[in-house]
Write a structure and sequence with these properties.
The chain is of the alpha+beta class. Helix content is 30%, strand content 25%. Bound molecules: zinc ion. The site of zinc ion (ZN) has 6 residues, from helix 5.
């Protein structure tokens, strides 16, 4: 989910194809290919790329994460770094090419300390009330915002980054961010929740931009 600035300011990310992304190699392969300098490589590595619509990878549901090991911790750190640099207030694993069910978010305001939250295998177990998410945006849907109907309060169950069971009661912005990111983990974008007409206008704009880009190459 995007923060104050809509367009991602990230440099181009790591190379990778669809099968790399499925196995998480896109995130895990150091630039030099040398596993010994893994952490050192990461320190100087450009941030991972955030996939954007119409990348089909964004439309697939993630699978539950089973083993929470050191590699997973590093990937979570990369997700957090990517989110903060974007800048955004939430990011789902599928957005960085990882198809296991992990999300990170931080809804602390700019003058507060960072307050990173990690949720693994989250699911909404109850929801109540309606709220309009005002001008919602997404790092994977650049240059577009829309009002989205969301639940006002939700209860989410999942695991923390250590694998301990976690229950999160959320309302307002907190609830909106969690719904947005859990949608990502289920292969849904916020534009799937707006009117068909608005969605079509956005898709048309993206197709036109892609055509113009191709013509310019
Ligand atoms: Zn998003």
């Amino acid at each position: 989910m995007s923060g104050d600035r809509l367009r991602s300011m990230l440099p181009e990310g790591l190379p990778g194809n669809e099968s790399d992304r499925k196995t998480g190699l896109l995130l895990m392969t150091p630039l030099t290919g040398d596993p010994i300098c893994f952490d050192a490589c990461y320190a100087n590595m450009p941030n991972v790329k955030i996939l954007t619509y119409p990348d089909k990878f964004l439309l697939q549901p993630t699978a539950p994460l089973e083993n929470i090991d050191g590699q997973v911790q590093r990937m979570i750190d990369e997700m957090a770094k990517t989110m903060y640099l974007a800048p955004g207030i939430g990011l789902a694993s599928i957005q960085v090419g990882w198809d296991r069910s992990v999300l990170v978010y931080d809804i602390a305001s700019r003058d507060e300390r960072r307050d990173l939250h990690v949720l693994i295998n989250p699911r909404i177990v109850s929801s109540e009330g309606d709220i309009i998410s005002d001008n919602e945006g997404c790092l994977s849907v650049p240059d577009f915002r829309a009002d989205v109907k969301r639940s006002e309060r939700i209860l989410v169950e999942g695991l923390d980054r250590e694998g301990r069971p976690l229950r999160v009661e959320a309302e307002g912005l907190h609830a909106i961010v969690l719904q947005h990111e859990i949608d990502h983990l289920n292969g849904r974008l916020f534009i799937d929740r707006i009117s068909a007409l608005k969605r079509e206008l956005y898709k048309r704009r993206v197709r036109k931009a892609i055509r113009e880009n191709e013509a310019a190459v």
